[in-house]
Amino acid sequence: MCVIPSRFRIAGVVAVAAIVSAVGLAGCSSSSGSYNLIKSGTLTVCSDTSYPPQESLDNSNNAVGSDIDLATEIAKRLSLTLSVKSTTFDSIIPALTGGSCDIIISAQTITSARQQQVDMVPYFAAGQSFVVLKGNPSKINTVDDLCGLAVAAEKGTVEADHIGGTGDYDSTTGLSAQCQAKGKKAITLQVFDADTQALLALQAGTVQAHFTDEPVAGYEVVNGNGAFEMINGMTLERGAEGISVTKNNTGLRDAVKAQLQAMMDDGTYLTILKKWGVQSGAITSTSAAS
Fold first, then answer.
1. How far is CA 189 from the centre of its chain?
2. What confidence tens digit (pLDDT) does each residue in 114-169 have?
3. What predicted TM-score, i.e. pTM, was given to this entire model?
4. What are residue 240's phi and psi, to 5 degrees?
5. Domain 127-238 falls under CATH 3.40.190.10
6. Same fold, 37-124+245-281 and 127-238
């Protein structure tokens, strides 16, 4: 592993190149020292901490989860201290571009709409899954069975986009539009600021399904005291999730990408995912197709 001393980390590209030469770090890229941090010595991360097992708050209000552990390890390898800012998901990109944090790690599916705003480093893969009450009382087994029902999703997620036909989904690929094209009733989408609130709506019976990322759905079932189940065979649109960095901070993007790839190569990455039971979403390269 090659790390430039922290006191040089905010220097300009030319200065860093000179430093690299002077200290004999022939294998280092000067870009690793050219990124800007909102707080010197700290990697500040925006994350929607209502999304276990990838990111949530423990009983002491500390951020925990597989994404948080990955970010902690990346920061460590960059000789930085990690700081997590809990941020609602639908405001998380504006928080990054507005200077509230250095990166986002928050189960963000890589989409063309998001890539127009930020750079995204692939780090995980997940599909979109449906959670229902135990016994599946509404008998939802196919997408068509959702027609005419109420479905909960977190605001700003690809799941909300997929139902409503927004973001990367258009009027023909949105699930509700597909229902209407078949002469069926539209899906009623209910959005919530936090994914945990969407699950509570399902538990209260105000919606018939909760649409969320695959690892989260699995976590909700395992930790739901027998109240929920995930619908088998209805995991949709499996794709890469990314760590987001502003487009003008290419040095930080490249440094994060390099350290994440090193973690994949030496086994640390998979060890972290196994700790949280989400190893099914592991990828092997930070250049994974998005």
1. 21
2. 999 999 999 999 999 999 999 999 999 999 999 999 999 999 999 999 999 999 89
3. 0.83
4. -75, 145
5. yes
6. yes
